[in-house]
């Protein structure tokens, strides 16, 4: 187990922002389709995949489950918990959706399963970007994206009183 690279920046994403970005991803993907089915990479890809599937009217949905983080920001060697080849075969005509490509580790594992699928993410970092075909927003490698499911509304002190800006 190795500690992930240091993250100097925090990029919080709201539910509204994620929904808007996932719809933008679907808009970009529309010309690449139609797709026979969609593979959501769990767990982060489930929410954007649902939005993309709705927007592109994709009804055949499967999941690929790959464990690359043990907890919080601690990385681990990739472990495939569930592949998606039973329905998707080699990926021909299929779309893979994830929330983020970071180092590219998960993307490489799933690409190995479904080499002919179209791979799309909402966010992409430079190290993982070569592994995806379509994405919406690029962020720096030293940015930790804080997704809505990782957040809770809470009081924040004003900056003048020692609060932080994130």
From TrEMBL:
Residue sites binding Mg(2+) per the record: 99
Pathway assigned to this chain's UniProt record: Purine metabolism; GMP biosynthesis via salvage pathway; GMP from guanine: step 1/1; Purine metabolism; XMP biosynthesis via salvage pathway; XMP from xanthine: step 1/1
SUPFAM superfamilies to which the protein is assigned, alphabetical: PRTase-like
Binding site for guanine: 102, 145
Entry function: Purine salvage pathway enzyme that catalyzes the transfer of the ribosyl-5-phosphate group from 5-phospho-alpha-D-ribose 1-diphosphate (PRPP) to the N9 position of the 6-oxopurines guanine and xanthine to form the corresponding ribonucleotides GMP (guanosine 5'-monophosphate) and XMP (xanthosine 5'-monophosphate), with the release of PPi. To a lesser extent, also acts on hypoxanthine.
Swiss-Prot/TrEMBL keywords: Cell membrane, Glycosyltransferase, Magnesium, Membrane, Metal-binding, Purine salvage, Transferase
The protein's name: Xanthine-guanine phosphoribosyltransferase
Protein's cellular compartments: Cell membrane
Major subcellular location class: membrane
Family to which the UniProt record says this protein belongs: Belongs to the purine/pyrimidine phosphoribosyltransferase family. XGPT subfamily.
The protein's assembly and partners: Homotetramer.
HAMAP family from the UniProt entry: XGPRT
Reported cofactor(s): Mg(2+)
Residues binding xanthine: 102, 145
Residues involved in 5-phospho-alpha-D-ribose 1-diphosphate binding: 43-44, 98-106
Coiled coil region boundaries: none
Cross-referenced InterPro entries: PRTase-like, PRTase_dom, Xanthine_Guanine_PRibTrfase
Domain named Phosphoribosyltransferase: residues: 14-151
Top-level taxonomy: Bacteria, Pseudomonadati, Pseudomonadota, Alphaproteobacteria, Sneathiellales
Pfam families on file: Pribosyltran
Sites where the protein binds GMP: 102-106, 144-145
Gene Ontology, cellular component aspect: plasma membrane
E.C. no: 2.4.2.22
Topology of the protein relative to the lipid bilayer: Peripheral membrane protein
GO molecular function: guanine phosphoribosyltransferase activity; hypoxanthine phosphoribosyltransferase activity; magnesium ion binding; xanthine phosphoribosyltransferase activity
UniProt catalytic activity: XMP + diphosphate = xanthine + 5-phospho-alpha-D-ribose 1-diphosphate; IMP + diphosphate = hypoxanthine + 5-phospho-alpha-D-ribose 1-diphosphate; GMP + diphosphate = guanine + 5-phospho-alpha-D-ribose 1-diphosphate
GO biological process: GMP salvage; purine ribonucleoside salvage; XMP salvage
């Amino acid at each position: 187990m190795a500690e992930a690279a240091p993250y100097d920046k925090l990029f919080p994403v709201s539910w509204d922002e994620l929904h808007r970005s996932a719809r933008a991803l679907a808009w970009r993907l529309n010309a690449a389709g139609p797709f026979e089915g969609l593979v959501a990479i769990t767990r982060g890809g489930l929410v954007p995949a649902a939005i993309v599937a709705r927007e592109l009217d994709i009804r055949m949905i499967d999941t690929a489950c790959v464990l690359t983080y043990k907890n919080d920001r601690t990385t681990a060697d990739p472990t495939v918990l569930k592949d998606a080849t039973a329905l998707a075969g080699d990926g021909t005509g299929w779309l893979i959706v994830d929330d983020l490509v970071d180092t590219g580790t998960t993307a490489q594992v799933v690409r190995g399963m479904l080499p002919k699928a179209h791979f799309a993410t909402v966010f992409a970092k430079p190290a993982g970007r070569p592994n995806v075909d379509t994405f919406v927003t690029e962020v720096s490698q030293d940015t930790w994206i804080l997704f809505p499911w990782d957040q809770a509304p809470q009081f924040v002190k004003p900056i003048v009183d020692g609060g932080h800006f994130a």
